[in-house]
Write a structure and sequence with these properties.
alpha+beta; 4-stranded mixed β-sheet; 124 residues
């Protein structure tokens, strides 16, 4: 509905982080209050290595960390999703660029290879 750093509105991409801590930080940095973040749940996802494409960091535009998110990063994510290049794209976090987020394309034929666990409340 709104899009994000790596997609425009209408492009269906799921965002996940490599850890609960990074996911929480992403929410808080993007304007969510701690009370609102408390209402989120974590859902573990097992991602087979052969389903992941790692974004070549040399392809990152110079403005990739800009706020609001630039059209340049949205074009990368939309292009990846539209090409059905892989079910998962590993991207750096704009909040902590040494950490990783993962984009999931639910329209990809290999989506069923991902093992999605049960939700759990991690924050209190």
């Amino acid at each position: 509905m709104y899009g994000g750093r790596w997609n425009t509105p209408g492009s269906h991409i799921l965002y996940i982080s490599e850890s609960i801590a990074l996911a929480t930080l992403e929410l808080l940095v993007n304007g969510m209050s701690p009370h609102e973040a408390n209402q989120y749940v974590g859902i573990p996802v097992d991602i087979p290595e052969d389903t992941v494409t790692v974004l070549d960091l040399s392809r990152l535009p110079t403005d990739w960390k800009a706020d609001p998110a630039p059209a340049s990063t949205k074009a990368i994510g939309d292009g990846w999703a539209n090409e059905l290049a892989s079910v998962v794209l590993q991207v750096p976090s704009a909040v902590v660029d040494t950490e990783r987020n993962f984009l999931i394309n639910p329209a990809h034929l290999e989506f069923s290879k991902l093992q999605i666990g049960s939700f759990k409340h991690y924050l209190r």
